[in-house]
Every structure is written in C-alpha cells, then in structure tokens.
Amino acid sequence: MGRGSGCDEPEERGCAEGSETKWVPAINANMLAKAIGVPANRITGDTAVRFGAFFNTTAEFWMNLQKTYELRLAEKSLSGRVTRKIQENREALGEAV
C-alpha cells in the first residue's frame, strides 16, 4: 500500500479505516518523534503541525485526538466521591436561587 492510496484491505498493516490518516507506516512513537524532532510523550500545537506535515493531514486532526484522549482519561479518573459532591453542590446552588 502506498502513501495516499487509501485502505483497500482493512486488515492491511498500517491501514486506519475511517480515519483522516489512510497511510500509517510500521513505526513506533519514538521513531516518529525523532523523525519530526519532538518529544514522544505529548502532542502540542507544534507537534500537531509537524504530524500534519509528516502525514499530510491537518493539525486540527492531531489536536482533536489529543483532546479526546485527555478527556477520556479525566472522565475515567473522576471518583464517585467527587461526582457526588458536585451533584450536592449543584443542588444546593439550585435551592439558593
């Protein structure tokens, strides 16, 4: 499969069906970070622009992936105790108005 050829075979290694990125080579995060000159552990605006240039996509695509990842982590880490406290405070504010 060549760059920009799409996903003819979904099981083909590197194919990201339904994604803006259609060609994904068999590389790891450290290899990619070294290739574009950024740390491997985060996506910043600068990193997103570089990913966009490397993969011929938009920076917004990469920033949205990072944002979604961070939101999912935050949702999973919010304890039941904190959620209950927020609910109690919201109800108390509603009664005060």
Task: Draw up the topology in text.
Blueprint: H1 29-36, H2 45-55, H3 59-77, H4 80-96
How would you portray this structure in words?
The chain is mainly α. It has one domain (29-96): lambda repressor-like DNA-binding domains (434 Repressor (Amino-terminal Domain)). The protein is 57% helix and 0% strand. Helix 2 packs across helix 3. Residues 1-6 and 9-15 have low confidence and may be disordered.
End-to-end span in angstroms?
62 Å
How many domains, as an integer?
A: 1
SSE order: HHHH
CATH domain class:
Mainly Alpha
The Rg value, from CA coordinates, equals: 20 Å
Please estimate the helix content.
55-70%
Q: Structural class of the secondary structure composition?
A: mainly alpha
Query: Could you state the CATH homologous superfamily?
Result: lambda repressor-like DNA-binding domains
pLDDT under 50 segments (min length 5)? 1-6, 9-15
The major β-sheet equals: none
CATH topology: the name is 434 Repressor (Amino-terminal Domain)
Quickly count the helices: 4
Strand content: under 5%
CATH architecture: Orthogonal Bundle
Shape descriptor: elongated
- Total DSSP E strands: 0
Give average pLDDT, whole number. 79
Concise description?
The protein has 97 residues and is an all-alpha fold. It is built from four helices and no strands.
What labels would you give this structure?
single chain; 97 residues; mainly alpha; 434 Repressor (Amino-terminal Domain); 4 helices; elongated; disordered N terminus
